[in-house]
Amino acid sequence: MDGGCRGPRARRPGDSAAADGGAPPAWASVIGAAPARPCGWPPARWRAVVKVVIPGGTGQVGTILDRALTARGHDVVVLTRAPRGDRQVYWDGTTPGDWVREIDGSDVVINLAGRSVSCRYTAENLEAMMNSRVESARVVGDAIAAAARPPRVWLQMSTATIYAHRFDAANDERDGLLGGDEHDVPGYWAYSVRIARNWEAAQERAVTPHTRKVALRSAMVMSPDRGGVFDVLSWLVRLGLGGPVAGGRQYVSWIHDHDFVRVVQFLIEREDLAGAVNVAAPEPLPQREFIRHLRTAWRMPVGLPATSGMAEIGAFALRSDTELLLKSRRVVPGRLAEAGFTFDHPRWRAAAADLTSRRRRGGR
Ligand SMILES: NC(=O)c1ccc[n+]([C@@H]2O[C@H](COP(=O)([O-])OP(=O)(O)OC[C@H]3O[C@@H](n4cnc5c(N)ncnc54)[C@H](OP(=O)(O)O)[C@@H]3O)[C@@H](O)[C@H]2O)c1
Fold first, then answer.
1. Partners of 259 in beta bridges
2. Model pTM?
3. Do 214 and 153 touch, CB atoms closer than 8 A?
4. Per-residue b/e over 93-126, b at no fewer than 16 CB within 10 Å?
5. Element holding 280 (H helix, E strand)
6. Tens of pLDDT, residues 202-231
7. Which of 81, 125, 252, when mutated, tests ligand 1's pocket best, judged by the most ligand atoms within 8 Å of its CB?
8. Distance, CA 347 to ligand 1 centroid (Å)?
9. Domain ranges (residues) in the chain
10. Of 116, 197, 297, 308, which has the maximum CB count within 10 A?
11. Binding site membership of 192 for ligand 1 (Cβ less than 6 Å)
12. Which residues cross the membrane (predicted)?
């Protein structure tokens, strides 16, 4: 894997100290081989094994990160309401507890906690979606602020849904339009934007002078794991239901799971980057093309088109919501591109082929 910018390789037992006298950062070993291009590494005294705490790390995204980071020898601790195994620690997502000891002395915190958005958007579910995100970000911020040895960086999950529903131009971090004021969409879509804004605001409010803060405005993370969004879309396609939805003009933003991990690594390494960062492949595409490429990857010749009414029935049957299908998410990675990050999987057609072939081989 080629990161957009690489640091020196991780220090291994027997290595001599780096020229600057500090241990080389262990993130190089997360990325992979020796550096192609040093990127101004600070003379930071990273430990050889990096401790990463992932609140809400039991879900789809957490599993991807846990797997990738653990495989590279890092010490990953997941905070969960239902711990299983010795690297999972109990927390409730709202109040301090023994879990704060995991944050104190860790190197990196990646907070993913939040009630799943794949549900009917009832008032009760919307409130749970809001509270679980804002409260968990607040309590993680409190734990970092109170830590004697705070982590170097806190990556806080956010979402590409923060941007406006639009077709005319792509949303980057500088010129993109935040959503909530669109007139031509159902009123409750504004609530999803409010969740995202409040989620980011909870991180911004935290006073963590020794910890860099980054908000990950992530598009859908596509991985071949069971239960993820790619799995659900693939299931529909293989049933012959992978056609344009409501005409299919709405843009789909996405990111391949390997690139997602690489972006996370990149943002951890790049100590000059803070604030909101779009985490999406550079070429979002209209849903009708997106689903056509997925059909091709599955060798499925037909895909039934659906009207928005049919999508509503389908979403109801799947206990989900049509906003996930109908909102035009045209989001591009402006800051990552400026910072020199290069994607291994920039185009959906090739990414879909890779994901389906991995899926055929049994996942991962
Ligand atoms: N998947 C994507 O493509 C994508 C894209 C953009 C943004 N995101 C956001 O990234 C985060 C992780 O995504 P994901 O797909 O991994 O989500 P997920 O599979 O639904 O997992 C989210 C995790 O949050 C925890 N959680 C759920 N309700 C909670 C509550 N009330 N209080 C505290 N923790 C709670 C759960 O952990 P326990 O049940 O173990 O406590 C769960 O493992 C989510 O916030 C999601 O909205 C995801």
1. none
2. 0.89
3. yes
4. beeeeebbebbeebbbbbbbbbbebebebeeebb
5. none
6. 999 999 999 999 999 999 999 999 999 999
7. 81
8. 26
9. 27-222+256-282+331-343
10. 297
11. no
12. none
